[in-house]
Amino acid sequence: MFVGNVPRQFVLRHYIRGGLIGKLISDSYLWTGADNSRPFREWRILAKMAENGLRVPRPAAARYCRVGPIYTADLITVRVPEVRALSSWIHDLPGGEQFWHDLGEAIHQFHSHGVFHADMNAHNLQIDRSGKLWMLDFDRGRLSPPGPWQQKTLSRLHRSLQKIKSLDPMIHYGQQNWEQLLEAYFAASRSA
After folding, report:
1. Is 27 annotated as catalytic?
2. What is the percentage of the chain residues whose pLDDT exceeds 70?
3. What is the DSSP letter of 139?
4. Which residues contact residue 5 at a Cβ distance below 8 angstroms, ignoring those fewer than 6 apart?
5. CA distances from 56 to 43, 45, 69, 92, 137 (A)
6. What is each CA distance from 64 to 21, 26, 70, 92, 192, in whole angstroms?
7. Domains of the chain (ranges plus CATH)?
8. Distance CA 79, CA 2 (A)
9. Which of 102, 119, 139, 168 is flagged as catalytic?
10. pLDDT in the model for residue 132
11. Rounded distance, CA 157 to CA 108, Å?
12. 124-176, pLDDT tens digit by residue?
């Protein structure tokens, strides 16, 4: 949900559970302390990434509402202007080789800063009007030393792109594009 007025708009996100548990418990979490609450953890990682010059929404406000051993939570971030999901971008535009190379380099930049995105998919990757990558939704994200998680997040993105393509054959994406992304990602890691 967007709040505020242009040019300074914000995004209000209420934390909702996904997956199977989300069918049973919609928005409640077990209380383990303010520092461990989802909005404050996400606030800290977003602030750290923004300090490092990574393209992420800047945190503006966070809160939790505790009732006994459970809590609900919300996070407000500054709205990133004129972005849209990678899934939408590749539906409308055929990204050329340079687009996929830039995407691979940008993902590597996040990884080189130790950014683990728990759900890196074609919806959480956002593209601005100049074709630059922004990452959203760092709930369950963390900063980690290099490791197998990097390949896992790339694999998660690959599965997401394949799924989108299988649901809509008009999507401008193919194996060659994935190879272009990986080529740039690994070239950036070799030169780092």
Report:
1. no
2. 99
3. T
4. none
5. 11, 10, 32, 23, 9
6. 20, 15, 10, 38, 40
7. 2-78 (3.30.200), 83-191 (1.10.510.10)
8. 8
9. 119
10. 95
11. 13
12. 999 999 999 999 999 989 999 999 999 999 999 999 999 999 999 889 999 99
